[in-house]
């Protein structure tokens, strides 16, 4: 890492050809990953990465150059290339004064990744693999993976911002596959957070493995899902996939400014039911999408995106905020020093409501209960989406009757936000790595138990047709 004087020299070089803004992002991180498949350790990956990126902005245009040479001379070369790419004006010398910024957030990392022996990580993975396979003879395949990252960063820019930060993240994953008579079902569990390996004091990867395997086996006996328009109850355990995909991306300012968001020109308008608020909050302790500073050096913050149904603001980085004259929201994120920052979600969720989750189910005459979401697709331009349901149940007369398999949810994000009619007082988080523009960043999403007035549910089989006929008769 460089001192303030060296960083100031690099920034001056980056602006010497007439740029409006310059930034240095230096990153050093240690990573380790352990993967178990076919009852054996299939892959172990240990490594260290170190590098820096220099960004110059002029009249809304960006040049970005990265290098593995993080010496002052190496960064001076990168700064010269970035500055010359955008401007070729008269040579100027701009003096930069850097002021360290401190965060009031206290995140603890009690067992840093490098303090935990590789043998302990391998033992956890093998134990989880065994726990999943012991659930049932119908379990055919189990994949268990654990990974960690210990990251140190320096950020300095021509506005005088100087940030140094350190963080650790842990991720645990189990995927179990069950098979019977040619039918295949999967169960998936994942956990993680902004923390060290003390996560094992509160999360058991063996319990995760048993849950994943049990779900895969249970879904083998599930009825084919019904098909048609019906109420859908999204359990808090399903996590916030719906809000992340069908709503969150459309609230990232770069997509809005490019005309690729259904929420363009709707600030101040009602875009959801009056009881619903959507929040992005990177300050939550221990959550997978949390941090003290974003990757531009802006302090983490809590941003109310939709406030009681009214679109309040978008998620900005420095570039989009400057273009709109908007405030920074701490959403400038990047996968690594090899990428320039763009607006990204952190921990995004629908705020809890006042309804009892059990009462939401009990008051549903017929419909689908979703307890675990699978993959999906969304079109941010119009908000249309299609999601798979990994674990679902049919509700009849307010009771959970039986599990169903093969369900898909098709709808429109903005329409769903208007059609939410019950909001529970619980809140369930899920984690993931969100992809956008070729970059993956850590995120968490959440929602309470909610009931959507009506969605199109896709299903297969004659049993599904029988369920639909029964719904229509009643």
From TrEMBL:
GO cellular component: cytosol
Molecular-function GO terms, alphabetical: metallopeptidase activity
Family annotation (Gene3D superfamilies): PmbA/TldD superfamily
Keywords for this protein: Hydrolase, Metalloprotease, Protease
Record-level GO BP terms: proteolysis
Residues annotated as domain Metalloprotease TldD/E N-terminal: 22-82
Xref: InterPro entries: Metalloprtase-TldD/E_C, Metalloprtase-TldD/E_cen_dom, Metalloprtase-TldD/E_N, Peptidase_U62_metallo, TldD, TldD/PmbA_N, TldD/PmbA_sf
Domain Metalloprotease TldD/E central: 113-220
Family annotation (Pfam families): PmbA_TldD_1st, PmbA_TldD_2nd, PmbA_TldD_3rd
Residues in Metalloprotease TldD/E C-terminal domain copies: 228-459
Protein family per UniProt: Belongs to the peptidase U62 family.
Protein name: TldD
Organism whose genome encodes this protein: Syntrophomonas zehnderi OL-4
């Amino acid at each position: 890492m460089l001192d303030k004087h060296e960083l100031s020299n690099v920034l001056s070089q980056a602006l010497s050809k007439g740029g409006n803004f310059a930034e240095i992002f230096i990153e050093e991180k240690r990573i380790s990953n352990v993967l178990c498949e076919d009852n054996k350790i299939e892959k172990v990956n240990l490594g260290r990465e170190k590098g820096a990126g220099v960004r110059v902005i002029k009249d809304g245009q960006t040049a970005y150059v990265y290098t593995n040479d993080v010496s002052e001379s190496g960064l001076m070369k990168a700064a010269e290339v970035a500055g010359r790419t955008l401007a070729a004006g008269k040579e100027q010398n701009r003096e930069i004064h850097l002021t360290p910024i401190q965060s009031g957030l206290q995140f603890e990392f009690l067992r840093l990744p490098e303090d935990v022996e590789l043998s302990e990580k391998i033992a956890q993975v093998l134990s989880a693999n065994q726990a999943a396979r012991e659930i049932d003879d119908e379990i055919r395949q189990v994949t268990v993976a654990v990974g960690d990252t210990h990251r140190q960063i320096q950020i300095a820019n021509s506005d005088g911002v100087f940030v140094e930060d350190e963080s650790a993240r842990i991720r645990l994953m189990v995927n179990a596959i069950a098979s019977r008579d040619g039918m295949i079902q999967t169960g998936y569990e994942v956990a993680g957070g902004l923390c060290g390996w003390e996560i094992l004091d509160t999360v058991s990867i063996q319990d995760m493995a048993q849950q994943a395997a049990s779900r895969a086996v249970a879904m083998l006996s599930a009825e084919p899902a019904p098909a048609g328009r019906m109420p859908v109850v999204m359990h808090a355990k399903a996590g916030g996939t719906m809000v992340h995909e069908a709503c969150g991306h459309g609230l990232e300012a770069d997509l809005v400014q490019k005309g690729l968001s259904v929420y363009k020109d709707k600030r101040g308008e009602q875009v959801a039911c009056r009881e619903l608020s959507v929040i992005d909050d990177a300050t939550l302790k221990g959550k997978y999408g949390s941090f003290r500073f974003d990757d531009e050096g802006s302090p983490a913050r809590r941003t109310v995106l939709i406030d009681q149904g009214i679109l309040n603001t978008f998620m900005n980085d420095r570039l989009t905020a400057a273009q709109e004259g908007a405030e920074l929201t701490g959403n400038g994120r990047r996968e690594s020093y090899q990428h320039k920052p763009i607006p990204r979600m952190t921990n995004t969720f629908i705020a809890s409501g006042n309804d009892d989750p059990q009462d939401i189910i009990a008051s549903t005459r017929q419909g689908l209960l979703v307890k675990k979401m699978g993959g999906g697709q969304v079109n941010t331009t119009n908000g249309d989406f299609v999601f798979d349901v990994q674990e679902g149940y049919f509700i009849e007369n307010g009771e959970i009757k039986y599990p169903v398999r093969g369900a898909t949810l098709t709808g429109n994000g903005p329409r769903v936000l208007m059609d939410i009619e019950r909001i529970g007082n619980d809140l369930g988080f899920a984690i993931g790595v969100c992809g956008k523009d070729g970059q993956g960043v850590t995120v968490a999403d959440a929602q309470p138990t909610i009931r959507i007035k009506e969605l199109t549910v896709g299903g297969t089989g004659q049993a599904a047709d029988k369920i639909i006929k029964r719904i229509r008769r009643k």
